[in-house]
Amino acid sequence: MKLAERMAYFDSSGIRKVFDLASKMRNPINLSIGQPDFEVPEAVKRAAVEAIESNKNGYALTQGMPVLREKLQAAVDAEYGHGDRRVFVTSGTSGGLVLALLALVDPGDEVIVFDPCFVMYPSLVKLAGGVCVWVDTYPDFHVDLDRLRAAITPRTKVILFNSPGNPTGVVATDTEIREVARLAAERGIALVSDEIYRAFCYDVPFVSPATFNAETLVIDGFSKTYGVTGWRVGFAHGTQAVIDAMQKMQQYTFVCAPQPAQWACAAAMDVDMSAYIADYRRKRDRLLAGIGDLYEVVTPGGAFYAFPKVPWGTAGEFVAEAVRRELLIIPGDIFSARDTHFRISYAASDATIDRGVDVLRALCRA
Questions:
Q1: Are residues 279 and 328 in the same domain?
Q2: Same domain, yes or no: 96 and 229
Q3: Integer Cα distance of 40 and 309 in angstroms
Q4: SS3 169
Q5: Domain hosting residue 87, numbered range
Q6: Against a cut of 0.85, is the pTM above it?
């Protein structure tokens, strides 16, 4: 049996390979996976159980159950006040990204992706038949507007934007966000903003490019903020035409997001997560205090990642040695054309972070 040619674009995720490796180790120091280590809030768990026990287990509406969709719409309307901004519920944030690119990108269209980036972006662009155009953000992982302008061609269809960023944790400045939004509007380019980490901003308030460009398509979700990564509930909001197209595509792909989880996520919107977020800021500071004197690392302003530069060798070589010492981290070439950095996830217990710091300090001197 011959596989489709598109399968040549995909390899098993390097992150998943580390995840599998962790399952086989007796006592790994796991600073690899971007999964919150806190428990799902009790009120959210109860809402999920109540939904299941009250038989809310069938197919959900493709656009999302009113209990969640209408609540999201009210929140989006209050934040942006755009006359043409509609919400629908997706099967996870990754599902929302799939639908966005399938709805926007034709074969041969160019999609601008900032390097480094979330591991799925280039594969999803190729799935849609698009061509990735990389814009380098090293060494500080901020958008250089001159580099961005130089990357735009008549075939540019989409700019993929992510702040706070994965894998760097960097939060774009207000000026960067405003100028990227303005440039996309001026050139008639679709701007897709991945905002899954918006709650995790530690030093400055979160700002969306949709504030400056009303046609920005926002992809967001519940998994990171509430620790429900396995529930697969995301949402998108943008112009009616784009949302309608994405909803049509969802009918023939994911069908819907899980119904019980939608009821629970509606309840989650009333839960104050500020204490959880403050704890992650403290974890960030704990990690940086442990390695900042030995490693070249840009202070992450959000998410729960840091992206230090390796002190010797390639990132692949450095991470291989870390794994031999039972420290699980992710080599930078998973996210980037460069093999010079590695990703740490500090979504972990303090004890795990401290164990990881000990290994990293020893590795720096190796």
A1: yes
A2: yes
A3: 33
A4: coil
A5: 42-268
A6: yes
